[in-house]
Write a structure and sequence with these properties.
about 190 residues, alpha+beta, Aminopeptidase, seven-stranded mixed β-sheet, 7 helices, binds coenzyme A
Length: about 190
């Protein structure tokens, strides 16, 4: 059961600031990372990702100054790879993951990306449900990908993300959550601020 229902949910989601991840966010990001994953990334992995410039896009969802979640993407030519997405456990199930995914897709649209991929633990059904909502389909298994427990990774892909069908899918997810999307110009100013 959602803690917030429409229209409060939409109001809450639209009050979040989605901005580029910066070093100043890393303390809070690391706090979430440690609580969200059994095998968290180190701070230096994030620092290295943030130093890679145009081939990466890392965003955070801010509630005031509090980082509630983040999502990272690696771009390779016309494909994107979601490298990390996590929401603070105390903010989960409030569509922040959905908000981060929709922003990630919109940024991919701006770069004329055709397809997005990611890996997810075979046991991580809640994340898989989120990805399925965004049109990701299972495409293979990486055996023993997660070394600490030898768990397999499910590889998922969303293809043809520039198609009108996919645009409609994402817009309908946003509409269901009450997410109002800013104009492209304002978004760009915001995302790089
Ligand atoms: C996966 C994660 C990012 C989802 O973030 P979130 O903000 O809680 O997700 P949302 O509120 O946007 O949920 C969207 C949909 O995902 C699915 N989902 C999310 N959490 C779920 C849960 N606990 N149980 C079942 N389904 C869930 C549902 O389909 C949900 O839509 P619905 O509630 O309308 O059915 C978050 O659970 C998380 O940070 N997990 C730990 C880190 C992780 O596993 N990251 C993914 C690595 S591949």
């Amino acid at each position: 059961m959602r803690e917030l229902e429409k229209p409060d949910l939409g109001k809450f989601l639209n009050s979040l600031d989605i901005v580029a991840m910066r070093k100043k966010h890393l303390e809070q990001v690391m706090d979430i990372e440690r609580r969200a994953y059994p095998n968290p990334w180190t701070r230096s992995v994030f620092e290295s990702e943030l130093s890679q410039g145009a081939t990466r896009s890392y965003i955070v969802a801010l509630h005031g100054r509090a980082v509630t979640g983040y999502c990272g993407t690696l771009y390779v030519i016309d494909e994107a790879h979601i490298t990390n997405i996590a929401v603070d456990p105390s903010w989960q199930r409030m569509y922040i993951g959905t908000r981060l995914m929709s922003e990630t897709v919109r940024r991919a649209w701006e770069r004329q990306i055709q397809a997005i991929t990611l890996e997810v633990r075979v046991s991580n059904f809640k994340a898989q449900k989120l990805y399925q909502m965004f049109g990701f389909q299972p495409a293979g298994i990486r055996k023993g990908y997660y070394q600490e427990n030898n768990e397999d990774a499910l590889i998922m892909w969303a293809y043809d993300i520039d198609s009108s069908e996919y645009h409609e899918r994402v817009k309908s997810i946003e509409a269901n959550a009450g997410i109002v999307v800013e104009s492209a110009r304002r978004r760009r100013r915001h995302l790089w601020s």
